[in-house]
Design a protein that fits this description.
By secondary structure, the chain is α+β, with helices and mostly antiparallel strands. It is built from 18 helices and twelve strands.
Amino acid sequence: MLLLYRDFLGFLEDMTRRYGSVWQARAVTEHVGMINEPELVHEVLAGRASEFVRTRSQKRLIGRAVGNGLILSDGDFWRRQRRLAQPAFHQQRLRTYLPVIHGIVERFVSTCPTGRNFALDEKLKELTLEIVAATLLGTRPPDDLGKLAEAVNGIQVGVTRLLRTGIPLPAWLPTPNNRRLQRSVQALNAVILPIIAERRRDLGDRGDLLSMFLLAADSEDEQRSMTDDQVRDEVATMFLAGHDTTSHLLAWTFHLLGQHPHVYRRVQEEADQIPSGKPPAMEDLRRLTYTEMVLKEVMRLYPPVYILLREPIHEVELGGFSFSRGQMLFVCPWMLHRDPRNFKNPAEFDPERFAPSATETFPRGAYLPFGAGPHQCIGREFGVLEALLILARIAREFDLELPPGQSMEPEALITLAPRHGLKMLFRPRGARPSP
Ligand code: HEM
């Protein structure tokens, strides 16, 4: 059972091969279960969502970094926080982020090396962190960005290690990992808290996510706006939820495009259609229909959020099994998306399956890159627009070459990462490969 923690996806695949798509098992201290039948998945995430909550281990472990933010909260508290945060993701608000994202992407493109291999995955991480920071907190001096990157990465590493330990030690024990995690959380707070305090003093709408949180007042109870602790938790949550998801999606995308040059050429042709030299309008990005099909297909094969966890609030019957209150249940998009019962030729990279004219249909609950039901991703539109903008801008500027021998092996961190990173060679459009 230690395999559960060392090779999580391997464990789930192995158990599914042996016992089918719905099973339960005792794993070290936890009683766990797998629900990977589309109809049942839909029941758990959407139809009967009120009977399931986030798991206690998620809250205990990830909560050390992001408190009780949206990715961990449940019930009335979650509902209220989600209502307060929602306006930050409305279309009108997203429009105002596009020029900010455009400016950052322009700088990124101008600093990408050409003619030699470089670690594209690392650069994409910095890029998406800068975008979340700029749209979330407003402008900050560049040295804060370095501190922020260090803190957020430290949190990701620390939380992943906690999740991988079969029996995590209590937070107060001064283990190296606990100490590192605490330092990273303190470093994140040291960036976020002064900004919150400053904004409280000068409470105007600066057009960023933080303004939305600070100005948000509950429509049902005007007195109950968010406390500083809640704002801090939600901001930390957005960093964790909104940064590596998009950077890993883009890393997988470039990897697959490097292997499928004809698909990349179509992405380039589409990118050439949008006006250059100014921030794209929402409508320009919406016209990138083929590019969006590519992103959907990448998220099918490499869903950044490869696992969703829930526990029932009382005993439930699902698929002929009885699952007890508090039992940790897995829904695994990684496996659902690769199941031949749900997708034809599932191992094949074929963006056409998402064409508006496609005849292939897949069952409800079988494709879940952004989850489903009330907890589905609040940043979905944001993430897709951001990825479209970045991908189109790079496609317009560069041809790609994937160095030989790049592995596509995934690593199940908090999100699904390329285990060996992603080296890539960019060349100005139309330049000949060197002999
Ligand atoms: C391609 C990028 C992204 C992917 C694939 C993704 C995926 C997901 C998934 C699968 C969930 C559901 C989790 C569950 O049911 O337990 C989720 C929730 C969430 N995501 Fe994303 N996400 C992405 C981008 C973002 C961005 C950019 C943000 C914010 C800036 C964000 C913020 C959140 C939050 C706050 C939740 C919790 C929502 C709730 O429970 O109310 N995500 N995301």
